[in-house]
């Protein structure tokens, strides 16, 4: 059995958490990431029969969502109450590999959470989003949540209508419309850690890989860590430019016509009804 600490997926995960921390997106215990692992990847590093602990899945009820598509699947996930700052230094405490147990009521811990920890309290919301993304993109593997500074700042000064929010982000850098042509969905302020916000996020995720939680942060989803990180990074860059310019009487903009040309050039499908 190979050493999981040397696996590409764990190293990438630690680097990603480190970068997110350094960019100021994950203060204290803010943020969480889950990465769907493929079975062959797991078997190289972990014995699937060696369950360290069984963790009850609290707050997951069949009436809220059908977890069946994820039964038997393994995730590398950040721990509840853990700090992104510490992930790279002590991955075996701050991260865990969990498999969704038979019946979908518990998780089998295969590795990590060595101090008795458990996955992020947002894990049910992550699972709902994984199911939603997998239904539209079977290659989706990552769900990521964080609190990027300028994206949050923009929530306080911009209306929370998702079309105008998306378009103002698209207008901030030429490549935005190409990076997230599916736009940024926006949820109003809602209580985090609840089934309601999990369901609402997952519903939005069917159409858009990015969902802003107003005055809280953002959820992103993608096929790998780089793609997902890059989506949030691009939104955050655009939000920064917005915050630097919106109250300074800007005199130039990127037109809808220009964005259409970009979409054509890069062959991306822009969200219906967003460009005139
Ligand atoms: O995990 O960011 O929204 C801490 C959070 C919850
Ligand atoms: Zn949060």
Structure description:
It is a single chain. Helix 5 (123-136) packs parallel to helix 9 (195-205) and helix 6 (149-157) packs across helix 10 (225-245). Strands 2-5-4-3-1-6-9-8-7 form a nine-stranded mixed sheet, sandwiched between helices. The model has no long low-confidence stretch (mean pLDDT 97). It contains eleven helices and nine strands. It is 39% helix and 17% strand. The protein has helices spanning 8-22, 39-45, 84-87, 91-94, 123-136, 149-157, 162-170, 176-179, 195-205, 225-245, 256-266, and strands spanning 32-37, 53-56, 74-78, 95-100, 106-112, 142-146, 184-187, 210-213, 217-222. With 276 residues, it is of the alpha+beta class. A hairpin with a 3-residue loop joins strand 8 (210-213) and strand 9 (217-222). The site of zinc ion has 6 residues, from loops.
Features of the shown structure:
single chain, 276 residues, alpha+beta, nine-stranded mixed β-sheet, 9 strands, elongated, binds Dihydroxyacetone, binds zinc ion
Low-confidence runs: none
Strand content: 15-25%
Question: What's the Cα radius of gyration?
Answer: 19 Å
Number of helices: 11
Bound molecules: Dihydroxyacetone, zinc ion
So what's the overall shape? Answer: elongated
In short:
This protein has eleven helices and nine strands.
């Amino acid at each position: 059995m190979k050493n999981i600490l040397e696996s590409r997926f764990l190293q990438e995960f630690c680097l990603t958490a480190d970068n997110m921390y350094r960019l100021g997106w994950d203060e204290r215990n803010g943020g969480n990431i889950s990465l769907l692992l493929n079975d062959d990847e797991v078997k190289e590093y972990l014995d699937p029969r060696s369950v360290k602990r069984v963790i009850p899945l609290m707050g997951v009820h069949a009436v809220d969502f059908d977890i069946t598509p994820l039964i038997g699947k393994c995730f590398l996930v950040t721990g509840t109450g853990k700090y992104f700052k510490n992930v790279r230094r002590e991955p075996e405490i701050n991260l865990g590999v969990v498999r969704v147990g038979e019946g979908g009521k518990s998780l089998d811990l295969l590795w990590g959470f060595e101090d008795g920890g458990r996955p992020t309290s947002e894990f049910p919301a992550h699972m709902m989003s994984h199911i939603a993304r997998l239904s539209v993109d079977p290659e989706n593997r990552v769900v990521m949540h964080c609190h990027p500074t300028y994206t949050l700042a923009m929530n306080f000064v911009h209306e929370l209508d998702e079309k105008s929010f998306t378009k103002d982000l698209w207008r901030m850098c030429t490549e935005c419309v190409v990076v997230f042509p599916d736009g940024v969905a926006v949820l109003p302020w809602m209580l985090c850690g609840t089934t309601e916000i999990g369901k609402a996020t997952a519903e939005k995720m069917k159409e858009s890989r990015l969902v802003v939680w107003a005055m809280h942060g953002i959820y992103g989803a993608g096929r790998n860590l780089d793609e997902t990180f890059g989506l949030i990074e691009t939104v955050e860059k655009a939000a920064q430019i917005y915050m630097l310019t919106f109250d300074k009487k800007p005199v130039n903009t990127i037109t809808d016509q220009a964005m259409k040309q970009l979409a054509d050039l890069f062959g991306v499908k822009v969200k219906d009804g967003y460009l005139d």
